[in-house]
Design a protein that fits this description.
With about 300 residues, the chain is of the alpha/beta class. It is about 40% helix and about 15% strand. The chain has helices at about 15-25, 35-45, 80-100, 140-150, 175-185, 205-215, 235-245, 255-260, 265-270, 280, 290-300; strands at about 5-10, 30, 50, 65, 110-115, 130, 160-165, 170, 200, 200-205, 220-225, 230-235, 275.
């Protein structure tokens, strides 16, 4: 039986694939986007598009909400103004979304809301990071924590809330991998900094499957690390990527150069977490791409 589902961030790298999966599963989708309706339908498929949450105030309601909206964290240097944009596009929008949902005639059974493994901050390279790991306080932790808290405001109203702490997403045709491919194809790729920092990667198909699993699994609630069960260091990731596309990886990007070029945002590349999907695995979720080699081969097939 198909559900009426509201999606924010539906035109993004994960959202497009999610919409197509949910339509194929027989659900009816409404997508919040600032883009014109025909653009939304071109990338998402057969959906209704709204460009303002206030259009949905006092609506009859949706059975599920998947909240993925947010400006790309790695798209611009982190000036103070940019940090505020990142917060507003996640936290302020989620606060507004929760207020609109509370006005509906029927509350949704579930909201699955985005977050990221950046919740944990820099965890070094020596220990496994599960959903119970205490975070290191820095910008990405505060961003993700406040984003999650905004979504959790629905829990007292009886809505089941799941939080998707997603890693670095690999998939064909977009995302961070698209930016890495050109230098690697030119033989100019290499490790970032020491290369010993972990990259908690995950294939886009597994992210989509995990979001659907959270929506459909009545016992699922709270935070889930949406990452591969086999995290790798940046050195191993870049070596594997070079091998998949048949190029050398001999040009490392030294940490001081990245710090000059990217400022505070360089921490995204020079620090990491050996994050493990402990809760997803314990609760029976099956990964289609648990290993890096096949995941990168699929993600670079175009």
């Amino acid at each position: 039986m198909g559900k009426r589902i509201l999606i924010t961030g539906g035109t993004g790298f994960i959202g497009q694939s999610l919409c197509q999966r949910l339509i194929a599963d027989g659900h009816t989708l409404t997508v919040l986007s600032r883009q014109p309706s025909h653009n939304v339908q071109a990338v998402c498929g057969r959906v209704d598009a709204v460009n303002n949450l206030d259009q949905l105030r006092r609506d009859e309601g949706f059975e599920a909400v998947i909240n993925l909206a947010g400006e790309g964290i790695a798209e611009k240097r982190w000036s103070e103004a940019r940090k505020q944009e990142l917060r507003d596009s996640r936290i302020a929008l989620t606060d507004q979304l929760v207020d609109v949902i509370k006005s509906w005639e029927m509350l949704p059974a579930v909201m699955v809301s985005g977050s990221a493994v950046g919740f944990y901050g820099d965890q070094g390279s020596s220990h496994r990071v599960t959903e119970d790991t205490p975070p290191h306080d820095e910008f990405t932790h505060r961003l993700c924590s406040d984003w999650e808290q905004a979504a959790l405001r629905l829990e007292p109203a009886g809505v089941r809330v799941c939080l998707s702490r997603t890693g670095v997403v690999a998939g064909p045709g977009g995302g961070f991998l698209q930016r890495m491919l050109l230098p690697f194809k030119l033989g100019l790729g290499g490790r970032l900094g020491s290369g010993e920092q972990y990259m908690p990667w995950v294939h886009r198909e597994d992210v989509v499957a995990a979001l659907v699993w959270m929506m459909e699994t009545d016992t699922a609630r709270g935070a889930y690390n949406v990452v591969s069960p086999n995290p790798v260091t940046n050195r191993r990731f870049t070596k594997c990527l070079a091998g998949v596309i048949g190029r050398p990886s001999i040009f490392p990007a030294p940490a001081p150069v990245l710090k000059i070029a990217l400022g505070e945002m360089s921490r995204l590349l020079l620090t990491g977490q050996m994050a493990i999907p402990e809760r997803l695995q314990a609760e029976g979720f099956q990964f289609r791409f648990p290993d890096l080699g096949p995941a990168l081969a699929d993600a670079t097939r175009y």
